[in-house]
Amino acid sequence: MARKSRRNKNVEAVSNQIIENCENLIDTGAYIRLSVENGGNETDETLVVQQMLVEKFIEEHPDLKLAGTYIDNGFSGTNFERPGFLKLMEDVRSGKIQCIVVKDLSRFGRDYLETGYYLETILPRLNVRFIAITDDYDSSRKEDRENISVPLKNMVNAMYAKDMSKKILAAKDAQRKKGNITLSKVAFGYVRSEDRHKQIVDEEVAPFVRMIFQWYMMGVSKKKIADRLNLMGIATPGQREKTGVLKVPLEQTKWRTDTVDKILNNPTYVGDIVTGKLKQSLYKGIKQYRTSPEDWNVQRDMHTPMIARDDYEELQERSNKIRKVTRNWHLKYMEDREKYKDCFPGMVRCGDCGRPMYCVRYTHNYKTMEKVGIYYTCSAQNYANNYCGQKIEENLLKILVMDQIQILIKSMCDRKKLLQRLKSDSSEKNAFYEAGAKVRMLERKIAQAEEKNTVLYEDYVGGIVEKEDFDMMKERYIRELQNLRDDLQIAKQDQRMLEKKTDRYMDMVSNLEKYLSDRSFNEALVQELVEYVEIYKDGSIHVCFKCMINLNRYRCVVTDGNGKSVTSSIATLKMGPTITGQPSDYTGVVGGTATMKVTANASGLKYQWYVSKDSGKSWNSLGSDFARASVSFEATEARNGYSYRCVVTDVNGKSVTSNSAKLNVIKKESWELPIM
């Protein structure tokens, strides 16, 4: 029994040791990426081979435990916005992953600046180990962290990606011209072949495609064809592709004229394939762009046609004639609308009932539909219980409104006073030029900061700058660059507002005087000066004028039925600033950098941030160090739950207060950070 007891103790000790070793294992994420540069070819870079290599490496190392495999299939290494990579970083920040293993550095990324920043700044701060198998790189080894070859390899990978982008696109164009096309999508009535290079007729759908062409050649309109297909319960191309069914319930049918039109104008149905309509650059993730028709590649007789080529060409010729007629009709229609357009859009009201009056174009020749005039009628005539019947001819309304404008101009257009006002108000002129100088200065500073950032990394790669200095200076440059960009955005906004205000002011000075002798109707002048016009049954009108542009002055001219007028006194309007972008809540770990930002719409703005430590009951100014549109400060445990808001003040002393934003600080052990 004693011998058996000792044996049990030995077994128990071994078991405890195994449990202790399992608890000390590092949760490891395997990251696999097959780039768009591979084009899906089965090489040693395939996903399966990468995954086997990485997972075997983790299995052979007793200190590592596979906690998850993260895969990005067909994503370029020059862009870090990849779903698998983003999920990996999310798990890293939540504490699920403490180590990342990749086949080589190029699988992680090919942008040398971004890759270097992750390897040398982000991952070390998160205490995450990084291993590149074939590059023999392990961040847990001090000699690897200080090895200059890693940044050099990142630079080589970036150059490789740029060169590979050009080669791949050239190779694809060559294959396309030879007819070797991989179909990502097929036309309605076709299915892909097994090798995805050909389109095969879908015998279930093909009769309906042929029916669409037959109907149209018989003279049935596209609208009626869509209606017939809806009544038959035929699935649209999108529904067919998504669900695989041909018949759908009548309430789910979605055929439209444009859906029919796309089928009728698709050369696929005569056996042709058109490629090269869209192009893109694989490097840096440049978006697709449309090419001109002469650059398209047309491959004839690539698959079994559904429609005879002669019928299709006849149909296209007919469609071109219809489009030409439609285009000519539309042009004439627009000419007529321009000739008889509404000169008071949304401006005419009924003074008796208060309802809007709308424009009516009338004709005396119903055969030619020649428009001979316009009148305005009260919308109350459409209500049986409250019929108004107020009407006024457009020509009469033009004369009456221009008379009122003449009275207004004569009373306000003193050119000498306007020029004196412009000359004496030098603050606005100075502000305009100062705004331009500020924009140019900030743009220079941003260019200098970006140059500093690049030089810093190159110095680090060259061994001139130590890693600790590089990390410190990199963080400082990034913070400085962000502040400069925020300031530039605000400065450009102020500049644009001053430019608009100055241009409109000068237009007023140069144009008002000539209207004194010109009594003809001027639509532009009406749109600029008139807010609305009220029409009364006794023949009188009331014109409500807008603010006199940049003079910010209002007054009203009231006219009775006998043409007698009286003018009100002038009131000056001073508008305050308007907040266009509110500050947002910030969530981050202890020691992180919290940023609060506000944007406002006005010129000469001043900012002051305030903090509340009691959930908004009281607010205290943060002082001159926080008198900016965008402010940054350290997220500490003591500041957790604080609220921040900004008071924005314009040149006239008018202020507006932003919404409050809350600071949420998380302890480092939780690491519940948003994805970077």
List keywords for this structure.
676 residues, alpha+beta, Rossmann fold, five-stranded mixed sheet, 31 strands, flat, disordered C terminus
Describe this structure as you would to a colleague.
This protein is of the alpha+beta class and 676 residues long. The chain is built from 17 helices and 31 strands. Strand 19 (557-559) and strand 20 form a beta hairpin. It is flat, with a radius of gyration of 36 Å.
Query: Structural class, judged by helices and strands?
Result: alpha+beta
**The CATH topology of one domain, please?**
Rossmann fold
State the share of residues found in helices, binned by percent.
40-55%
Instruction: State the total count of DSSP E strands.
Output: 31
CATH class of one domain: Alpha Beta
Q: What is the C-alpha radius of gyration, as a whole number of Å?
A: 36 Å
Q: What's the CATH architecture name of one domain?
A: 3-Layer(aba) Sandwich
CATH superfamily of one domain: Resolvase, N-terminal catalytic domain
Q: Strand content of the residues, in percent? A: 15-25%
Spatial gap, N to C terminus: 62 Å
Uncertain regions spanning at least 5 consecutive residues: 39-44, 282-286, 548-553, 670-676
Outline type = flat
**What is the tally of helical segments?**
17
